[in-house]
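Margin note from the TA: students keep mixing up input and output lines. Inputs are the sequences; the output is the structure of the whole complex. Example:
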Amino acid sequence: DQQVKQNSPSLSVQEGRISILNCDYTNSMFDYFLWYKKYPAEGPTFLISISSIKDKNEDGRFTVFLNKSAKHLSLHIVPSQPGDSAVYFCAASVTGTYKYIFGTGTRLKVLA
Amino acid sequence: SQTIHQWPATLVQPVGSPLSLECTVEGTSNPNLYWYRQAAGRGLQLLFYSIGIDQISSEVPQNLSASRPQDRQFILSSKKLLLSDSGFYLCAWSSGTGVGGTIYFGEGSWLTVV
């Protein structure tokens, strides 16, 4: 049972344009969501998070949007840069359970 | 500041051999500790998590086990490795409060079972 899904395994975007990565979840108890960036053979690094009491959180070029009714969140990267090329994972947790469930990842390629 | 280290970074083990991956966290006390695995072409699968010494939860039935001999040390073990155990293993930690906390990952360990 995949509670967190990233249905697009890959995405290619031109440098300078917007990258939109999507994530869907099935567990309505999730109340905290995170995005991570991962390079090959390295651990994921934290990018940005959002609590379920918000619908948007912004940090520099990265913005995360949460649509609770649709159980959907997205990560926007503007403008996209070649160094953004990596695999992006979304994750979700339920406060108090200490568990973080990750999606399958989306490989982003930013073309120069 | 908090740091997390895991080792070894890479290992090649024959089928049926034992496994021990170690992870330590510095700069924090009573962290929640995790082991994840990323198999080829797949996402991050939660294997074990621990909210304290002698408090370890297993998420996936398998021939792996985890132990937490000290507050900031987490060990992943196997008595007999299978080919399917190959993958990229990640140790991680989060704040003990469990309230909207961020999870932080180590560098990862590549395991190839031959």
